[in-house]
């Protein structure tokens, strides 16, 4: 899970759930097996926790599940994001977790490490989801839950100003991005060529799309340790830092940037963000602004990749109504329900086949996000990720704001991550 900056967050085949008799399976290679789900409609009461806007909107969608399963009662509790993590950990410790819940993708390792999550039934088609999103459910080779909705990051750019700067089409590689950012300053009147986070909390979300596009892996030793100090990461941080040292990005950028007004005014004609920013900039820009900008995939170094975030749906081991909880989770991941949820919440579908629906294909910008999701990647599901990444954020800030040596910065981040460990 990644918190959105402006609000709380978030084609193959349909999910296929083969219903079978209950009974724990044997241990499978690479992870735990889980019982399949009993036949018949959902019954009884299901308690569900969801955060932010999703918690407020989910009850209306759950009513449709109740209509299709007259014997079930879905009780949704909306939880504020800032209280969610502590509420979950307290409930897990007390054995009072809900039956099912929306869980941030970066919390999966921690909650699975507490033995709180029920493994995903093997009959759920994991291949129906975007690969990067599916990996956020996997801890130690076992999948716990399913991706509910996803988001990824693209480069927003002012199409009209790019044309003034001499660009009819956006660049496709690292050198091209820097050249266009400079041209935006020199020829299109931009104060800064691109808006990049100059360190601080969450700056890893801006850095890692470049790192993954450079072939970087965040783990080593067969996934047993952090891998911040790699040649690919060093090259990435050098490139990222050069935007600040060369005066293309603002090294004094505030922790809470004024992205929308800067973009609309042309002061900062490029930035990296998720799909929720489309409505934000169009609202501020007014009539006709949607035609003045576009989005482009992350520029290629070795490939083009980005960050996949969002939230997962899990079932807790303490549930007294496991079958119905999984039936509800599985229903929320059906393609037609995913499309309906997008229309109600603007949360992007995690199921690839849902992207074939006209509701998503009609918007070319949205379709570009869908294409990027094919190669988007997720951080490792280590229980200590939130702690380890704080040190990387700190070191990125030293490079961006003070011109610190990228190699030295990454060695410090690696040392901190090694001392913290993975929590396994």
UniProtKB/TrEMBL annotation:
Q: Which domain of life is it from?
A: Bacteria
Which InterPro entries does the annotation name?
A: SBP (IPR006059)
- Gene3D superfamilies named among the record's database cross-references: Periplasmic binding protein-like II
Does the entry feature the keyword Signal, yes or no? yes
Q: Where is this region: Disordered?
A: 405-424
Q: Where along the chain is composition biased (Polar residues)? A: 413-424
Entry protein name: Sugar ABC transporter substrate-binding protein
- Report keywords, A-Z: Signal, Transport
Family named by the database record: Belongs to the bacterial solute-binding protein 1 family.
Q: Does the keyword Signal apply?
A: yes
């Amino acid at each position: 899970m990644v918190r959105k900056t402006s609000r709380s967050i978030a084609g193959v085949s349909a999910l296929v759930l083969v219903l079978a008799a209950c009974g724990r399976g044997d241990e499978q290679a690479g992870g735990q097996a889980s019982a399949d789900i009993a036949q018949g409609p959902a019954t009884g009461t299901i308690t569900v926790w969801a955060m932010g806007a999703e918690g407020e909107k989910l009850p209306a969608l759950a009513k449709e599940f109740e209509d299709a399963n007259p014997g079930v009662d879905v009780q949704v509790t909306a939880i504020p994001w800032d209280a969610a993590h502590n509420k979950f950990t307290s409930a897990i410790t007390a054995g009072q977790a809900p039956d099912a819940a929306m869980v941030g993708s970066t919390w999966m390792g921690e909650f699975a490490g507490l033995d709180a999550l029920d493994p995903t039934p093997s009959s759920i088609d994991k291949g129906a989801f975007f690969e990067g999103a599916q990996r956020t459910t996997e801890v130690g080779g076992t999948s716990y839950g399913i991706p509910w909705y996803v988001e990824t990051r693209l480069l927003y750019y002012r199409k009209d100003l790019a044309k003034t700067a001499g660009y009819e089409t956006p660049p496709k590689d690292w050198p091209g991005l820097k050249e266009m950012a400079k041209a935006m300053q020199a020829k299109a009147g931009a104060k800064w060529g691109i808006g990049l986070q100059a360190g601080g909390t969450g700056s890893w979300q801006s850095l890692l799309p470049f790192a993954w596009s450079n072939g970087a892996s965040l783990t080593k030793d067969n996934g047993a340790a952090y891998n911040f100090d790699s040649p690919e990461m060093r090259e990435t941080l050098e490139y990222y830092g050069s935007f600040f040292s060369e005066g293309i990005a603002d090294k004094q950028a505030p922790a809470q940037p004024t992205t929308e007004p800067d973009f609309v005014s042309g002061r900062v004609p490029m930035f990296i963000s998720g799909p929720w920013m489309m409505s934000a900039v169009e609202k501020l820009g007014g009539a006709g602004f949607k035609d003045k900008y576009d989005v482009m995939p992350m520029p290629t170094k070795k490939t083009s990749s980005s960050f996949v975030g969002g939230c997962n749906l899990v079932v807790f081991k303490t549930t007294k109504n496991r079958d119905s909880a999984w039936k509800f989770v599985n229903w929320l991941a059906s393609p037609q329900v995913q499309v309906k949820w997008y229309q109600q919440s603007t949360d992007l579908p995690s199921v690839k086949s849902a992207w074939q629906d006209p509701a998503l294909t009609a918007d070319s910008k949205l379709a570009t996000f869908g294409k990027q999701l094919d190669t988007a990647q997720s951080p490792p599901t280590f229980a200590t990720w939130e702690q380890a990444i704080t040190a990387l954020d700190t070191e990125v800030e030293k490079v961006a704001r003070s011109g610190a040596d990228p190699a030295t910065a990454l060695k410090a981040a690696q040392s901190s991550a090694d001392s913290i460990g993975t929590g396994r």
